[in-house]
UniProtKB/TrEMBL annotation:
UniProt KW keywords: Carbohydrate metabolism, Galactose metabolism, Metal-binding, Nucleotidyltransferase, Transferase, Zinc
GO molecular function terms attached to this record: UDP-glucose:hexose-1-phosphate uridylyltransferase activity; zinc ion binding
Gene Ontology annotations for the cellular component aspect, listed alphabetically: cytoplasm
Signal peptide range: none
Highest rank taxon of the organism: Bacteria
Family to which this protein belongs: Belongs to the galactose-1-phosphate uridylyltransferase type 1 family.
Protein name, as recorded: Galactose-1-phosphate uridylyltransferase
Pfam families linked: GalP_UDP_tr_C, GalP_UDP_transf
NCBIfam families registered for this protein in UniProt: galT_1
Ranges where the Galactose-1-phosphate uridyl transferase N-terminal domain occurs: 73-239
Protein's UniProt keywords contain Membrane: no
One record GO biological process: galactose catabolic process via UDP-galactose, Leloir pathway
Amino acid sequence: MSQFANYTPGAYAKEHIRITPTTLADGRDFFYLDDDPEYVSGAKTRELNDPRELAYRFSNQLNAAGEEVPYAAPEMRRDPLTGDWIPMATARMNRPITAGPGATATGNPLAARKPGDPYQDGEVPDTDYNVVVFENRFPSMVKVPGRSEAVEYIDGNPLWERKLAAGRCEVICFDPNETGLPADLPVTRLRTVVEAWAFRTAEISKMDGIEQIFPFENHGQEIGVSLAHPHGQVYCYPFIAPKMETELKHTEAYFEKTGGNLLKDIMNAEIEAGERIVMRNHSWIAYVPAAARWPLEVHVAPVRDVLTLDELDDQERWDLAQMYSTLLKRGNAFFDKGDGLGMDLPYIAAWHQAPIHDARREHYRLNLQFFSFRRAANKIKYLAGSESGMAAWISDTTPELIAQRFHELGAIDIAD
């Protein structure tokens, strides 16, 4: 029986992945996911004690005047013009930034512990790891014990609702290699990352107040990544995020009109058309959507009807790890700088999965939306007036040209 309340490992994970929970010094949840056979078997064990002397995460804090004040919990305010909730987390201004021209700190909080190193504020207690997951030290959203989550009104005006941003934010470190690229990880390690997505989706979906679980990966300095270490995140919203809300409105309207599943019919239409399919294996289809916004955009969908990552079976998880690895490698080769070596592509990989409680979830379908705003080896697609001001997208290419470039990089059918 699984030691976790809601996550049940499949046959592969039972034999080849060991999940070990612990608690960091300030009270945050932390999990090792090991695929090294010595740790899976129990012959070796991970360090569970965080040696840092950290105050409890929700302790009172000192303000600029040196006065003790309650923990500055993230709040969110509703935009009355759009209905969107906007989380606001001032503590994130203090998070360490170690990558890019705006770097403000040395050291790497996502690295394994280095005994004797001057920097000893890392989040991982052990001197090595395979994959780890932990609650973000500087969260955009967090549930604070004992704090009311009731709606209040700014200036007493009902136009402006606000309440605590009582969600959850987690970090997933894909590998201990600080300078490595996700594209270079072995498929077996990416299989462990897939298991981490499924594990956290299963466990968090039963937590009180969470409405949507969003695993994602930001990669590359141009994207704005503050830590270069290969990692992703899981945002757990106490609301339905605006993009998901738009998709749910359209999938529900499509079901009411046709009785069909819009995401499944889109996938099948792309398969029938054929031209924009860029990869496929036994369990997954990858295609450039017919109305792609980004200069490089690929959607990845399971062949079987699946709502969330934790519903994937063993074969689907393996096939996903293999397809994700191939997608990252071909993404890095997409733009040619003239030397035939490609580049480290800046990208966002965004998992869209069915919301937890919304009744419209049954007419949704799991999908990955992978995109980059790089439009040439030396050019970036900037979101200027039309995109940022009106959310009216202007594409600099066509989906067919994007797909054609992927076809030049390798076979559509990749090994199962």
